[in-house]
Amino acid sequence: MARWIVAGLIILNILLGVGCYLRFGEKTAQAQIGRPGGDFATVAGQGNNNSVIYILDVNDGVLAVLQTDVMNRNVKRLAVRNVGDDIKRMK
Asked: What's the average model confidence in pLDDT over 18-38?
């Protein structure tokens, strides 16, 4: 009986070792290959009883508004606007 327990634990350790090896061998995600990382300004707030996140890409001048729904674990894009163009029109 003790041999089966020891053999089971050895097999379990081997499987866990292989799983760790495969997990750490994964490549990281590269969302924007060839483009330098952006500079972002973020502000969190409340709107319509939900959390709202304002994200401004400083390099491109694009403002995105995201609404988070915690109950449904959902993120909804409310609006995207090019603020850089708005500033150029005001000058």
From this structure: 69
Q: Indicate the pairing of strand 40-47 with strand 50-57.
A: antiparallel
pLDDT in tens, 3-26: 889 999 999 999 998 888 877 766
pTM score: 0.54
Cβ–Cβ under 8 Å, residues 38 and 58: yes
State the amino acid at position 23 in one-letter form: R
12: helix, coil or strand?
helix
Do residues 85 and 63 make contact, with C-beta atoms less than 8 angstroms apart? Answer: no
Nearest to 53 by CA among 75, 70, 32: 75
Q: What is the edge-to-edge ordering of all strands in the sheet holding 62-69?
A: 40-47, 50-57, 62-69, 74-82
Question: What sign for the dihedral angle of Cα 19, 23, 26, 32?
Answer: positive
Q: How many domains does the chain have?
A: 1
Report the distance separating Cα 75 and Cα 38, nearest Å: 21
